[in-house]
């Protein structure tokens, strides 16, 4: 019997949340009997030990075949630089398709390069919309979906959004959530929160009991790059911390802003334990044992729903509505009154327990690979 030749698929990652999404896809391409052969490109949008290497190591992602090393810059410069450096990669071999995940600058940059070279584009996590174009990710999502040939969705609302935007029904496949694949595959390996706290020499940290703390993450430019909003939000956080201790792994963007605005003293006036940006297994361990999470991250909204941990989203809207309608998420924006009443509600009632959405079952990547395998033949 003649063996079907392998079809090389370029898989792109750039920023932290991409790593959790690509890990199960690469694993499924390698493990299932398929004609697919992954070729991993890291754009270098996120770099260094805390933002890149620890994720590759913890999630067993193979070393990228190519690292474009773009680093940080403005949106225009970063996007342009990724495009410039990605184009020659596509000339090196006979690639069958380019697969991009999520909504970061690397997603749209590599997507545009692919389609202009007539290489089919596959988008994993398509169709999510918050209809707020001040959010860079919303622009990346809409544009990537418009140029994609095959679109995989995490929730049914995404399908409706895509149809409204004129995408052909036959190109859309509801497969579930690859981020949850990674969560379920790793939840038993999560690093216990006590171990993560041991690394900080903060005397408050040793008193923190399981289920009796909150986790905070904050990195959206709309909040952290705006001095008034950032200060107001941190003031509210300090108030919350007087009711329940808060563990706060600080994203580099946020750390820079806190430093330059001199807000460190404000933070230390409350019961807030600041940590550097954490690896995947550390943050998973923190979330798993938390009373609740406060965040502006899309990924954490989904992960808390999968874990059944209440989440307060510090944004005016979400592109992941199923986390609110079925999961544990409540949108409170950065409005102090809404945040404080959200916290009160959780402390009094335990908060939303929710249910796990359809197909968030740990097998999304396998579904993707089964469909892809047929599609490339
Ligand atoms: C990016 C994504 C965002 C995603 C987030 C996850 C876009 C438009 N934004 O935002 O959707 O939720 O990643 O973290 O693609 N920095 C470092 N080390 C790094 C990377 C960045 O110190 O490895 C610092 C740099 O000072 C940089 C800043 O963080 O200027 C912001 O990084 P950038 O990748 O531009 O955006 P994020 O805020 O991380």
Walk me through this protein's architecture.
By secondary structure, the chain is of the alpha/beta class. It is built from 17 helices and 13 strands. The radius of gyration is 20 Å and the shape is globular. 49% of the residues are buried. Bound molecules: uridine-diphosphate-N-acetylglucosamine. Uridine-diphosphate-N-acetylglucosamine (UD1) binds next to α1, α2, α5 and α11. Uridine-diphosphate-N-acetylglucosamine binds next to α1, α2, α5 and α11.
Q: Which ligands occur here?
A: uridine-diphosphate-N-acetylglucosamine
Largest sheet: 7 strands, parallel
| Number of helices, where a helix is a run of at least 4 consecutive DSSP H or I residues | 17
Order of helices and strands: EHEHEHEHEHEHEHHEHHEHHEHEHEHEHH
Strand order of the largest sheet: 3-2-1-4-5-6-7
What's the pLDDT, averaged over the residues?
96
Ends distance: 17 Å
Q: How many extended strands? A: 13
Using only C-alpha atoms, the radius of gyration works out to 20 Å
* Structure classification: alpha/beta
Estimate the global geometry from the Cα principal axes.
globular
Helix content, binned percent: 40-55%
Strand content: 5-15%
Uncertain spans: none
